[in-house]
Amino acid sequence: MRLPTASIFLLALAGGAQAQQGRQLEPLSRSGEAVTGRITLSADSIRFTGGKSLKLALVDGKARGSFDAARPGTAVTARLYRVVTPADLVLRNGNTLCGRPGTHLVVYEASPGSVHLNFYEGAERPGGQGKDKLCFFSVYGG
Fold this sequence. Notes:
Layout: H1 5-14, H2 17-21, E1 23-27, H3 30-35, E2 39-41, E3 45-48, E4 53-65, E5 76-83, E6 104-111, E7 114-120, E8 134-141
Antiparallel strand pairs: 1-2, 1-8, 2-3, 3-4, 4-5, 5-6, 6-7, 7-8
């Protein structure tokens, strides 16, 4: 039986050996290439090229909202994480994710093999609305 890529991605983050090791994703956008490079996303952390990482805590495994910056108003189902210890890491080429400590991460698949990551700043939980403080987004594959 062949599972759709989205199902495999969600299973990997839900548990098992792959979730602990993480899923490696290559940047498919210029922002991802310039700022993060390859990332490794696991159930409780995200690691960037160069080895820096952020510890994550799952807030909602099925958050529903308009998180897709390329398609405003289109609701998607995403995994919403809180960054355990917000930090504004200096990553590739001296770039940072937000310019301030990012507090939340939203992860979703807009199409098979296309994983979108959004970082938000501020104390409020992003709800996929226009008032959210989106500070970085990029698309990855792998």
